[in-house]
């Protein structure tokens, strides 16, 4: 009896070690791509930062009523190595964004052996959708959210005509970088909600009717998440909350169509 129990323990230990070895190898692959992406982004980090300053420049041109060519804007740093560390952070975040498809593929490769063939086929479309939604979230920040946030911030400036003192935004390279990276990562990850919900629906854990009935609770939860996940400005909070609410109802529609097609397939197999 003792020998049987010992054999069972050894049999269960072997697959666990194999899974850990595979997990380590996939993490090594991710870290390798992350390092290559980091080095590439660091080489062009100054150009990337200038590119990220474009929404600020365009917003300043609109708010101050000055053509872009005539603007004299300065981004400041107040510590000797501050901009160097900003470049490091920009390179790391940029590398994560660039290699996100690799990360998604490695996750799929790790869990795929535990899935049936039909389950792997069902999982593949969600794998392809995940990097696309992440890119949509990042683009949403750069082309829509960030310009609106900058216009709102620059709109707080005041001329010296009121009390003889001019109130002007003094842009800090570190603060601006923190704002951009926070917004891009938060929106990119948050835009994965349809993938997460539809995977739960595919597994039979959630149903579209359940989410539709609980939409009021979803609104409250999304509002709280947007308030805590974004920087303390109303523009980004409203934009994230509105986008997530739209994605929530889109997810419900996708879940409904997916579950209806699954039900029709089951009925066909029974016939």
From TrEMBL:
Coiled coil: none annotated. It is found in: Cell inner membrane; Membrane. Keywords: Cell inner membrane, Cell membrane, Membrane, Protein transport, Translocation, Transmembrane, Transmembrane helix, Transport. It comes from the Bacteria. One of its GO terms (biological process) is intracellular protein transmembrane transport. The keyword Cell membrane applies. Pfam families: TatC. InterPro entries: Sec-indep_translocase_CS (IPR019820), TatC (IPR002033). One of its GO terms (molecular function) is proton motive force dependent protein transmembrane transporter activity. Its main location: membrane. The Tat system comprises two distinct complexes: a TatABC complex, containing multiple copies of TatA, TatB and TatC subunits, and a separate TatA complex, containing only TatA subunits. Substrates initially bind to the TatABC complex, which probably triggers association of the separate TatA complex to form the active translocon. NCBIfam families: tatC (TIGR00945). Belongs to the TatC family. Part of the twin-arginine translocation (Tat) system that transports large folded proteins containing a characteristic twin-arginine motif in their signal peptide across membranes. Together with TatB, TatC is part of a receptor directly interacting with Tat signal peptides. This is Sec-independent protein translocase protein TatC.
